[in-house]
Amino acid sequence: MDAISKGLACAIASVPFLIACSGGKAGDPGSIQTNQCSGSNCGVQGPPSQTADTSTLCPANADIGASTYLGGAGSGEVVSLNIDAVKMTYTLKFFDSPVPVAAGNVDNTRANTTVTGAVMHPPTGMLPNAEQTRCAFMLTPASGTAPSTGSTYTTPFSSTNPPIVFVGKGVAGGGIPGATISYSGPLGIGSVNSRTFDFYPFLGFASTSTDLSKLAGTYNGLLYHIQPTAQFAARAINTIETFDANGACTAPTNPATSTASPSSPSSTGCLTTGDAYTLNANGYFDSTTAPQIEAQYRIGGLVTTGKSARTHMILGQLNGATVPVVVRTGNVNTGTPAIDDESGIAMLASATPLASGGFNGGYVGADSNFRYTASLISGGLGSFINPTTQAAESGFALQYGQSSDGLVTVADAQGNPGLAIAAGGLYAIFINGTENGGVAPSSANADTVNSPYFSVGAQISK
């Protein structure tokens, strides 16, 4: 196992981040050879044979981040990010958010808040080479006026696990500033045990579409939600949904998922869409009465307050593909009271046939452990890699040919089941198990669960 880990470390270290952002595609992998292996628990059997790519990973001109990246975060936030790589500053706009501007309250969120601050490149040695460091930006504390309070809001910053965004050509991903969530609640109603998040995973696109006809088709979706009032209970689930040219969504009533999914989709239909999507002035789509994948909060364990959260869909355009990202923005109104605080993110990928080996390559992103991670996939085998230390972490096996085109079953070394999808050079994976050592201690509390695991990454090699 030590030899395998060292081999994988050498392989991933030789490949720069974010090659997919320059045009790589998950459906067009290069030739990668692996040793023979049988069974889902055998792990990766040696490094793929790959050659380092010397092309630029992000725009070669001085203003690397000239594009504004619109996307979503695992916190259930819709945000836009612009980085001025000449002045070394950034602007982050929270269009919608369930995240409070300060611990101890839940009503006043950072929705509609714009913050500005300085960026810096990660210190030498944190990433494997100079080009990766050039295209990575650490988001130091930023400030702006929060409309919910009328006062100055400053983003938190963890020096041990900072928010870092990797900028590529067409996509940016990594982590945006986190928060401390804590609320005692009147008579305990809506109470939330204190928990600090170092950062929230983020995925944004330089190009998005406001044309719903681009959404038409059938998609596989992977969702990951957290519910603060349920001790931050987490759930990951898949969905198979069909959209028409107007954005209307339909889903099988009882999809046959016994062999394709560790968690069957809801029998009530679409999980990414409540009421019909409508376009807003910020370039993405809104839907009210958002579906839930966790249990509705009950006041006193008896009375529910209904579904009051919203979903938002960003139609990302990357490498010729439409990649919808959906965030569920939880809602808490203590005056009503209305409590529907389940929040999270989903990625959708077109349900098109995917041949065995269609995921081959390397990927990088952030995950539900509130860590940065890379993935190396070769044929039916994959491994998570720590991008800082280059050490191989958890391994997993992939099985193609499931009941929905493009949906791939995965299982980790302990046999925990999961699923993976890919589109436009991005991939998403969830596993109903604990991976890579679990949640970063600095982003956990005594109630934190380490399973399920969820990650979205951009292709870094092919």
Q: Portion of residues in helices? A: under 10%
Radius of gyration: 21 Å
Q: Averaging pLDDT over every residue, what do you get? A: 84
Q: Separation of termini?
A: 24 Å
**Shape, please?**
globular
* Count of DSSP strands: 30
Number of helices: 2
Quaternary state reads: single chain
Summarize the main sheet: 9 strands, antiparallel
> Which residue ranges are poorly predicted, with pLDDT under 50 across at least 5 consecutive positions?
1-54, 254-267
Strand content of the residues, in percent?
35-45%
Structural class: mainly beta
Kindly describe this structure.
The protein is mainly beta. It has a domain at 58-206. The chain is built from two helices and 30 strands. The chain has helices at 2-13, 130-134; strands spanning 68-73, 78-84, 89-96, 113-120, 136-146, 151-154, 164-167, 171-183, 192-205, 208-209, 217-227, 233-243, 249-250, 278-279, 285-287, 298-299, 303-304, 310-318, 321-329, 331-333, 338-340, 343-350, 361-367, 372-378, 381-385, 392-399, 408-412, 417-423, 426-431, 453-461. Strands 10, 11, 12, 13, 14, 15, 18, 19 and 22 form a nine-stranded antiparallel β-sheet that branches. An eight-stranded antiparallel barrel has the order 1-2-3-4-5-7-8-9. Strand 26 and strand 27 (408-412) form a beta hairpin. The protein is globular, with a radius of gyration of 21 Å. The chain starts with a helix and ends with a strand. Residues 1-54 and 254-267 have low confidence and may be disordered.
